[in-house]
Amino acid sequence: MTATTDDEATRLFTAQFGGEPDGVWSAPGRVNLIGEHTDYNDGFALPFAIDYRAVVAVRLRDDDRVVVVSTAGGDPVETSLDALDGSRISSWAAYVFGIVWALGEDHGRDRLTGFELALHSDVPVGAGLSSSASIECATAVALDELWSLGAERASLVLAGQRAENTVVGAPTGIMDQTASLFGEADSAVFLDCRTQEAVPVGLGFAEAGLEVLVVDTRVSHDHATGGYASRRESCERAARALGVPALRDADLDDLQAAFTDGRLDEETFRRARHVITEDERVLETVRTLRSAGPRAVGELLDASHASMRDDFEISVPEIDAAVAAMRAAGALGARLTGGGFGGSAIGLLPRERVAEATAAVREAFAAAGFGEPGITTVSPSPGARRDG
Ligand code: GAF
Question: Which of 57, 82, 84, 315, by CA, is between 20 and 30 Å from 250?
């Protein structure tokens, strides 16, 4: 993995479509520091935007054709605005087309015109770092400007979520798009998923001599199928059994009572316990960052990982190995980040321990017979913006 340094999107645009784009926009992937599977439970999350970005070069057309192409390869994908009716699409173009459909729903389809778009992204695909949300958000800020929609960023978050839920088919929450649209350098986004309030919280990693190491296990996951949706169903079942609108509104005493009197089975009880305790950990992490700084949050990251592994059961052996190796090499805390079932682990490390931790993870993976991981550090970075 290497961070974006040049504008390959414009080069592809010119090679594919001729001439210059009307503009270039970009949006970052994200790491979630803490607060996993809390977003669709109306809870709290604390992600930050990273220095890996999706870049789109875009030019309006004077007809209703939409043509998209990516440096990742494959033929250009072409459609018409009329054809974008919210139906499922299975290629990467779903992230762009889903945004077009959602913005048309929000602002009226008569506001839309055709366009050409070239994408270049260095957010690793399938790493649990929101490569899809970064494409959605870069597209959303580009089209908002080119179509003069004047949309609030919070409404672009919801457009991205609807694109994901309806056109991609993944029943995800609002965390990833919020991080990508509201990220700021050196800060995390403290997100209240019920109100959509997004408040920057200074991280101060650099001054504290800390780095965030990301280990991409390259174990692929797909939130449009399987485990993610079943976890969401468990949470909704638990909220119904507890008689609350969302798990945000329950506490551990309510939960224990529902388990004891038989309203909840043991598995649903544990799933809900993860969410309720994770919300508490997010709030505690924000308080700790503000009062004591980033060196004091390690135990909360560790507790979050244990809860995801044991109660929510979304970790995999490769993630657990990465977490253990980073901790043994001096991480203050380490955990799975993102939706789980593969993807990435993060470790919060003193800068001088990064090389040792990287080597330790590689050795642990080799010893266990796992495939080679992708390992990089990331920095809290600005959100979606116009670049050119
Ligand atoms: C994925 C989803 F897209 C987010 O909405 C969130 O639920 C996350 O998994 C888990 O915290 O990234």
Answer: 315
| DSSP-derived secondary structure letter, 224 | T
Helix (H, G, I), strand (E, B) or coil at 294: helix
Provide CB contacts within 8 A for 233, sequence distance 6+. Answer: none
List all residues 6 or more positions away from 278 whose beta carbon is below 8 Å from its beta carbon: 34, 35, 36, 37, 38, 43, 304, 307
Catalytic residue, chosen from 39, 144, 176, 302, is 176
Report the separation in Å between the CA atom of 245 and the middle of ligand 1, taken as the mean of its atom positions: 20
ipTM: 0.99
Atom of ligand 1 nearest to the CA of 35: 11
**Would you give per-residue pLDDT tens digits along the chain (388 residues)?**
444 435 999 999 999 999 999 999 999 999 999 999 999 999 999 999 999 999 999 999 999 999 999 999 999 999 999 999 999 999 999 999 999 999 999 999 999 999 999 999 999 999 999 999 999 999 999 999 999 999 999 999 999 999 999 999 999 999 999 999 999 999 999 999 999 999 999 999 999 999 999 999 999 887 777 899 999 999 999 999 999 999 999 999 999 999 999 999 999 999 999 999 999 999 999 999 999 999 999 999 999 999 999 999 999 999 999 999 999 999 999 999 999 999 999 999 999 999 999 999 999 999 999 999 999 999 999 999 999 9
Measured from the CB, is residue 343 less than 6 Å from ligand 1? no
Residue 290 shares a structural domain with residue 260: yes
Give the CATH number of the domain where residue 61 resides.
3.30.230.10
Closest atom of ligand 1 to CA, residue 128: 12
Q: Which atom of ligand 1 is nearest to the CA of 339?
A: 9
pTM above 0.95, yes or no: yes
CB atoms within 10 A of CB 243: 11
Say whether both 247 and 218 belong to one domain.
yes
Structural contact between residues 137 and 145, judged by C-beta atoms closer than 8 angstroms: no
Residues 192 and 322 in one domain: no
Q: Is the CB of 278 under 6 A from ligand 1?
A: no
What residues make up the domain containing 115?
A: 3-202+381-386
Rg of the chain taking only CA atoms, in angstroms: 21
Do 191 and 259 belong together in one domain?
Answer: no
Is residue 194 located within the same domain as residue 221? no
176 is catalytic: yes
Instruction: Report which protein residue has its CA nearest ligand 1's atom 1.
Output: 339
